[in-house]
Structure formats: C-alpha cells, structure tokens
Amino acid sequence: MWSYIVNPLFIPSVVSLWYFNFNYYNDPENVQIKLYLIVILTAAIPLLVYTMLKILGIVNSIHLSSTRERITPLLVYMILLVILLRGAFRDGLHLSLYYFFIGILIATLVATLMTALRYKISLHLMATGGVLGFCIMLSFTQGISLLLPMALMGVVSGLTATSRLSMKAHKGHELIFGFALGLVSQVLAFSYSVT
Hints:
The chain is mainly α. The protein is built from eight helices and no strands. The relative contact order is 0.14.
C-alpha cells in the first residue's frame, strides 16, 4: 500500500505543488499552466503509456518488476522530462523547480543506463532521495530552513525502503543506490546553478 502512496510518478507533481505553495510568485496564471504541464507530462502521460504497454504485454504490473519491463517507460519518461524542461521553463522563472527537474532527468538517465545493464535500481527510493536532495539544496540556495520537510522525507524514505523490502521488490543495495542516486542528482543539478 505504501508503495502506491509514494509512487515515483506522483512525486514531481506533489513537490511542485508544495514549492508553489510556499514560494512567492506574482503570475498565478503562469504557475497554473506550469502545474498543468507538470501533472500531464510527469504523471498523466506516463500512466497512459503504462496502460498501452500493459495492453501490448510489454509490462506485467505497475511495479515494473523486471529490468526488461523498465526500459521503455524510463525512455519515454526521459523524453517527457525534456519536453517539460524545454516548454514549461522557457520563461526563466522558478529556477529552483527547473533544477529539480534537471536532477530528475539526470537520475532517470542513470537509472535507464543501470537498467540496460540489468541492475534494478529502486525508483521509489530514487524519488524520495531526490526530494530530500531538493529540500537540502533549496535550503542552501534560498537561505531558508527546511528542517521539517527534510526530517519528513527521511521518515518517508525509511518507510518506503521498509515497504519495498517487505514486498521483496528489491535488495538492500538497490534501495541504497536508488536513494543515493536521487540525492546526488539533485546536488549535481543545483551545483550547476550556483556556479
């Protein structure tokens, strides 16, 4: 059940909504369009693609249990992220969120390469590690205290790892690597922004 709540497809939309909720902006229409694009390109279209792949017999379940099942959805997700980055952030506003999606793109690229090498990285922990990395870098670059969201993401990551282990969906090293990849990808994306 927990794995469905912390599904990697929904995390970018939730984080974006949280970001716009606490961040100042003066163009609500622009923000609304960005949120629509984020939800459509990172959640709705990937779910439609999954449904098509399920109908075609390319994937068996939403968990994408084998490395073979993961390649196509990850490639499609990378393409959708590039479209999002090129379309929604062309105005140069909300750069922190832009770098969050750059971090997601980096992590997804590495996860796709690892999947091609038959290594089944935890996408759930990659997502929670990415959110923690985003909070850390946002705190650093904006000079604000985000200790509560960081602590919350630590707890969410622990619960997610426990859930994935109890489901026997991953080995411990796949969870650790996924978490580290998500976190480091955000640090890399944001470190580019501060240089």
